[in-house]
Design a protein that fits this description.
By secondary structure, the chain is of the alpha+beta class. A hairpin with a 4-residue loop joins strand 4 and strand 5. Helix 3 packs across helix 4. The longest helix is centred in the last third of the chain and has 34 residues.
Length: 209
Amino acid sequence: MRAEITEGTTQNTAVASVTTGISDGQKGIRRIELPISGLTCAKCVQAVEGALKSVRGVNRATINLADGRAFIEYDPAQTTLSALHEAIKVAGYRSESAKIRFRIEGITCASCVSKIESALHKTAGVLSASVSIGTEEAVVEYLPSATNLATVKAAVGSAGYKVVETAPVAGQDPLDRETEAREREYQQLMRKWWFGAAVGVFTMIMSYP
C-alpha cells in the first residue's frame, strides 16, 4: 500500500511510499494514508473514524479494516499530522512512529535551533522535532509510513546545517546515550555559569575606588 500526502500541483516522491501534490479541486487539502495497529472489528473502525473526524480540519476519514489503514483528508492550515497521530492514540490504537537522535554540525545560537526545527516541522511525516544547543543534537519523531530517515536528515541540510554521521557504540543502551548527552549539556552550562560569575566578581571588585 502507498502512504499518500497530497499538496501542490507537482508530484514529487520523497520516499517509495510517499507522494506529494494537490488534491483535485480542493486547494490546500492533503490526503494521507496511515497504517493502524490493533483494528479487529467494526467497533474499532467506528472508534478511530470518530476520533479522526473530531479533529478540527479533518474533512474525511475512512478506515479499511482488512488492510488496517486509515485514509484521511485534512486542511493543514487547521490541523497537523501530529494531531491526527495523537487522535488515533487517544482512541486506543497506534500508527507506528520512530524516534531518532543525531548530531548536527554548526549549531551556535537560538536562531540556528529555530531554523533547523522549522525545517524539520515542515517535513511531511515528522511528528515532532527538538534541537539542543548544548549537545548539538536533534531528536525527531516521525512516521516511517510517510517519510524516512534520509528525508529527515535532508531537511537539516536544506536549513544550511550538516548532520554528523556517527556509528553507535556497540552494546551501549539508548538510555545511557541520552544520560550522557544531558550530562554534557549540564557541564557546558555550568562552565558558562562559572565564567559569567568570575567576570561578574572581577567587574564588581574593579568598580570600587
